């Protein structure tokens, strides 16, 4: 590395160190590390290149294009083993990425793996991205791979037929291949690659064991064209329906600090809802969710929707794993909804200590979030129940919690506490334990009156603290603690009679 190059590296590194949240600094340093990199580059240059890419992808793991760039560069440098390692890392982070899969399949074909090994990877890729609306390149590669080894085999025809059933942007290409093949059918062997003998007899009314004439082939071709013309219309309709959402997808890949509009997020949400109802298979739904997560990773919306989908299908552990991944993409501003959902899942799985740890971590930055505080009350109640702790000890814990908060928030927590039907509470002790700012609130006394067995006694205490506040009087009137004459006197006085 020349002195000017080292100086540029130092300058760019310093800029990044001063502001590592600015993606432009990462791009500048990465481009510098890649520039003029060859097999004859120094150990220092290679080390700088690898460290830069490793750190970049650690910070921004959904950068598909940089994973591809990293692996391809290692291969160009003659480091096939390192390239394989990068590809494996990329697929572990982005196992549903169409871009990563297509580029990886090109790589394994180039390094000369055998047919069975490559086929295994094609099949796995199909499970992960075969339903992608833009999976044309993948399916074309798959067909070309099979044809290169075995010609237009039965497997090739089955692949082609599968392509025609999937609503793809370029669906017409595969129908064109299929109709061209049908048009040139002139031997029974090829026909039986497209349709097996049972289906041939059942649907096309042709016996594979009989002698076939030109008229038979003409009949078979006509019936196959009719069958796949009907399929063409169906696939065209499905593709058109999906296009109503696809045309509104503005960004397909992850870009740090590039914000999605409200309309973009709504479009993904509606697209996913449509797919949950109309998908051909469940993998089609899952693939779309994972695809949607890449450009929207910095927002909780799709993560939470996906988690709900898993929960609805009884996959709590999958929902949990998904949301732990989501935490790495959230900012302090949008972290809480994901944490709350995780807390509920951990509690449903009876992981109460882990749920409490999550709550406390979130409260360290959101100390007055009422939902988090209520979940803390819930999990502490469950933990204390497991340890057979006395009710009064739990009530003391809650009193200390709500006394530490503003009065309005404390009342919200108290309302939740009073909702524990199985919890035996010493109301006098509860009243005594609450701080003055709570006792000065009429809402506090309405809550106490709602819970009290001896309403008259609590009412007298309320009068001492807040006087005849309208909330207290209204509650007492509605619950019959005033006699008719008293109620009449108050109402006439209020009317000036």
TrEMBL record:
<dbReference type="InterPro" id="IPR003107">
    <property type="entry name" value="HAT"/>
</dbReference>
<dbReference type="Pfam" id="PF23241">
    <property type="entry name" value="HAT_PRP39_C"/>
</dbReference>
<dbReference type="Pfam" id="PF23240">
    <property type="entry name" value="HAT_PRP39_N"/>
</dbReference>
<dbReference type="GO" id="GO:0000243">
    <property type="term" value="C:commitment complex"/>
</dbReference>
<dbReference type="GO" id="GO:0030627">
    <property type="term" value="F:pre-mRNA 5'-splice site binding"/>
</dbReference>
<protein>
    <submittedName>
        <fullName>CYFA0S11e04126g1_1</fullName>
    </submittedName>
</protein>
<keyword id="KW-0508">mRNA splicing</keyword>
<keyword id="KW-0507">mRNA processing</keyword>
<keyword id="KW-0677">Repeat</keyword>
<dbReference type="GO" id="GO:0071004">
    <property type="term" value="C:U2-type prespliceosome"/>
</dbReference>
<dbReference type="InterPro" id="IPR059164">
    <property type="entry name" value="HAT_PRP39_C"/>
</dbReference>
<dbReference type="GO" id="GO:0005685">
    <property type="term" value="C:U1 snRNP"/>
</dbReference>
<dbReference type="GO" id="GO:0000395">
    <property type="term" value="P:mRNA 5'-splice site recognition"/>
</dbReference>
<dbReference type="InterPro" id="IPR011990">
    <property type="entry name" value="TPR-like_helical_dom_sf"/>
</dbReference>
<keyword id="KW-0539">Nucleus</keyword>
């Amino acid at each position: 590395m020349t002195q000017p190059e080292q100086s540029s590296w130092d300058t760019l590194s310093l800029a990044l160190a001063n502001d590592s949240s600015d993606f432009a600094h990462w791009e500048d340093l990465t481009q510098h590390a890649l520039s003029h990199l060859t097999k004859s580059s120094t150990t220092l240059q290679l080390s700088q290149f690898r460290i830069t890419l490793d750190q970049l992808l650690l910070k921004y793991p959904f950068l598909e294009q940089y994973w591809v760039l990293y692996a391809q560069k290692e291969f160009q440098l003659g480091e096939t083993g390192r390239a394989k390692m990068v590809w494996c890392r990329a697929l572990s982070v982005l196992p549903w990425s169409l871009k990563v899969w297509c580029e990886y399949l090109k790589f394994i074909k180039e390094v000369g793996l055998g047919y069975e090994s490559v086929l295994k990877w094609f099949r796995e890729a199909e499970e992960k991205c075969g339903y992608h609306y833009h999976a044309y390149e993948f399916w074309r590669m798959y067909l070309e791979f099979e044809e290169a080894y075995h010609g237009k085999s039965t497997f090739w025809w089955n692949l082609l037929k599968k392509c025609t059933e999937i609503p793809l942007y370029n669906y017409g290409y595969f129908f064109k291949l299929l109709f061209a093949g049908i048009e040139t059918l002139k031997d029974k062997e090829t026909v039986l690659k497209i349709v097996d003998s049972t289906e041939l007899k059942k649907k096309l009314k042709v016996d594979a064991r009989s002698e076939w004439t030109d008229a038979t082939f003409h009949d078979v071709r006509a019936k196959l064209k009719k069958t796949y013309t009907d399929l063409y219309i169906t696939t065209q309709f499905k593709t058109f329906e999906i296009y109503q959402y696809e045309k509104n997808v503005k960004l397909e890949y992850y870009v740090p600090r590039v914000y999605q509009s409200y309309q973009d997020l709504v479009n993904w949400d509606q697209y996913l809802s449509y797919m949950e109802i109309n998908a051909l298979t469940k993998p089609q739904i899952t693939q779309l969710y994972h695809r949607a997560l890449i450009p929207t990773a910095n927002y909780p919306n799709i993560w939470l929707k996906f988690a709900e989908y898993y929960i609805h299908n009884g996959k709590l552990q999958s929902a949990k794993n998904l949301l732990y991944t989501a935490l790495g993409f959230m900012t302090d501003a949008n972290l809480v909804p994901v944490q709350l959902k995780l807390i509920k899942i951990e509690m449903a799985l009876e992981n109460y200590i882990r749920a409490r740890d999550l709550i406390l971590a979130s409260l360290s930055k959101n100390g007055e979030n009422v939902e988090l505080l209520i979940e803390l009350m819930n999990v502490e109640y469950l933990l204390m129940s497991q340890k057979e702790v006395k009710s009064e000890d739990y009530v003391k814990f809650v009193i200390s919690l709500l006394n530490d908060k503003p009065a309005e928030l404390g009342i919200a927590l108290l309302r939740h506490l009073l909702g524990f039907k199985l919890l035996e509470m010493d109301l006098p002790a509860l009243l005594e334990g609450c701080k003055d700012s709570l006792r000065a609130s009429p809402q506090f006394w309405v809550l106490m009156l709602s819970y009290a067995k001896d309403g008259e006694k609590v009412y007298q205490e309320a009068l001492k603290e807040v006087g005849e506040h309208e909330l207290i009087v209204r509650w007492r009137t509605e619950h019959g603690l005033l006699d008719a004459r008293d109620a009449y006197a108050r109402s006439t006085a209020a009317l000036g009679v």
